[in-house]
Amino acid sequence: MIDLPITLVVTFLILAVCVPVASGMMDDFGKGSTVSAAKAEAERIDDAVKKAYYSGAGSTGTVAVSLSGGACLVLGGEGSDSYCISIVVDDIVEEKMYLQRPSVKFLGEPTYIMGNRTISIECAIDGGSYGVKVSVID
């Protein structure tokens, strides 16, 4: 009769330790898959940017972007960020993907993309800087 309460206490103690660990692992897995999906979308944008850039000033293209799970892509920014796509999940920058080979600059203010959007990419010369302008169509 005494063994039953001890067994229950040990069982609840094990559950109290394991449940938070398992919950944290599931949250990390969900966040990792959100970042991976956002990275795939960023790579599609990178390909479209390179295509417009190589085609020369005046060239345009569009990309349909689909993001979920609180993900946001930030195209451009100040300084070296004007050459990158930042992957942001829950207001935390998870990864920065710099445009290389060629190093293409996002002209103008940073563009924020969330949810399902179509973006327009235009190769342009602005104030002596050669790069791309990005705008959200819908």
General description of the model:
This protein has one domain (3-136). Helices cover 38% and strands 35% of the residues. The protein is elongated and about 80 Å long. The protein is built from one helix and seven strands. The model has no long low-confidence stretch (mean pLDDT 86). The protein has 138 residues and is α+β, with helices and mostly antiparallel strands. The strands form two sheets. Strands 4-3-2-5 form a four-stranded antiparallel β-sheet, with helices on one face. The protein has a three-stranded antiparallel β-sheet with strand order 1-6-7, covered by helices on one side.
Short description, anyone?
By secondary structure, the protein is α+β, with helices and mostly antiparallel strands.
E-strand count: 7
Largest sheet: 4 strands, antiparallel
Mean pLDDT: 86
The helix content is 25-40%
Q: Going across the major beta sheet, what is the strand order? A: 4-3-2-5
Stretches where pLDDT is under 50 for at least 5 consecutive residues are none
Helix-strand topology string: HEEEEEEE
Return the domain count.
Answer: 1
Evaluate the radius of gyration. Answer: 22 Å
